[in-house]
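Researcher: First entry.
Model:
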Amino acid sequence: MNVVVSILYLFIGVIIGYVFTVKSKPAPSQNTNKVEDDKTPKKCSKKDFPHFDAKMVLVARKDVKMDRSQIGAECGRATLETYHSASEIRPKLLHQWRTIAQAKIVCSAFSEQELLELYNAANADELPTGIVYSSDPTNSAQKIPTVIGIFGRNDEVNKITGKLKLFN
């Protein structure tokens, strides 16, 4: 008897869960594919933007002693910083990049001076940028720039980072 009652309760729970799931789905007449702040569809494809070409380039320093996991973490932080900057400066281009390609490239810089020159050049061209500071391995109280991010159209970003070597 106890088993029959348990099975009955389980069956009733499944039916109730199914009914609530079906009722919570939006009606087909409602348009849920629009972003509220602009009219760009959420699901985009390359055919919607045939001339789309944007990317994010991350530039990491090779002269700072960091292992691969630290570099990965710093690149992740730089990606977020650059993403937030792009959401304020170029939200439509960021939306297209996010829904189509999300191209990210990691390049090398060999000094703090080179990294800051690239960062300043990107800011002078009004490109969205992000910079990550980490503790200096020799002096933990001092923060040093380790990774920058630059976002924009390919030609704009290549003008600044086109001669850099890929990080390996």
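Researcher: Second entry.
Model:
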Amino acid sequence: MSYNDVIELNVGGTRFVTTRQTLLKESQSVLAKMFEIDSPLQPAAMLKDGSYFIDRDPKFFEIILNFLRNDKLEDLSKTELKNLKIEASYFMLENLLIIINERLDNLNDVIELIVGDTRYVTTRQTLLKEPQSVLGKMFEKDSPIQPDAMLKDGSYFIDRDPKKFEMILNYLREDELADDLSKTELKNLKIEASYFKLENLLSIINERLDNHKDVVELIVSGTRFVTTTQILPQSVLQTAAMLKDGSYFIDRDPKFFEIILNFLRNDKLEDLSKTELKNLKIEASYFMLENLLIIINERLNNLEVYRFRYWNEQEKQEFNYSVKKSYFKGVPLHVIINFFTEGLTGSFRGYNCKDPFQPFGTHFVISHDDIIHINKPLLENFFWPLNIKEYIEEARNFLVAEMKGKHSKNQLPSNRIYNLLKF
């Protein structure tokens, strides 16, 4: 016999093959004494096939054998460690017992909870944050007060609302309560905090509820908004229906309601397109918000402009000039377009597009927002060196007078304009 002998074992009906050297790793253990050369202590029986029979649990013996081979213990649950400890104690494997006990001590500070039907994992330290609370007393070491039940897997069952318990657990972890809780959520959370006697949390909840007396919750077509009675005018609340939870329902467009609410908070209206302003005007009228309507109407009036653009190839620069539509005093849009874009040709070639900027050539583009691109040859060939502003002003004076029938050829501010005009 030698230390390199191969040993066959039958442990509870399962066959294992190892070496004598592995089994002697812990010299004071039962296994070492069983398989030491010339040891008087032998396994329970040698079977006909020459293997040694040991009447223990093969599942945990496999873990023990792997530990003796590698000097490492695999990751195990709390229950598995407890069962392995029984086997390690039987075989008097002191080094393995030290590791198991260290693992169990560490796991004793990790608490698994089943609250309602939801599993939570936390630490004893977290649950003891408020030591006078029910949770603090439940999970204090050697406490006589226990959770509702301990399950087979070592977790603790608590028969409470898991959603509210999650808020409590997060509060204990962070020392902060989430800011976005509604009045209803605070009231429900107060019930749970009272049950667990979490006095610090109850103080925060009560303070929040006091502040919530002036808080208004609005459900606008499915979207939730929270504001205060100081911000919200009575004309808005008059349009709302109160729900069972104390919030108000308003059957309007939430997108524009958000814009209205931000205006009421800040006294400023964000930048909006012409279409958005028109839609917002409908909502502001519905809620009878006169100050907002004044601003919207001012914005809409300012948007009633023609914007002229011209690309100068020599200077590689785009020139822009905007004038209110009233500047042309009733000159029809098609007359303005025809003049600024075609000049001598007199033919109307325009179309709508989403991208108003193009190299113009002899064509023009007028976009949906009344941007008029001036024909490149028209300005460069016939009006240079007039700049775009002078050109538009001169053209406007002529077109307005022409519409009133007040101009003759000799009275024009520029013969060039008259020569170009072809209606």
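Model: Note on the second entry: The chain has 18 helices and 15 strands.
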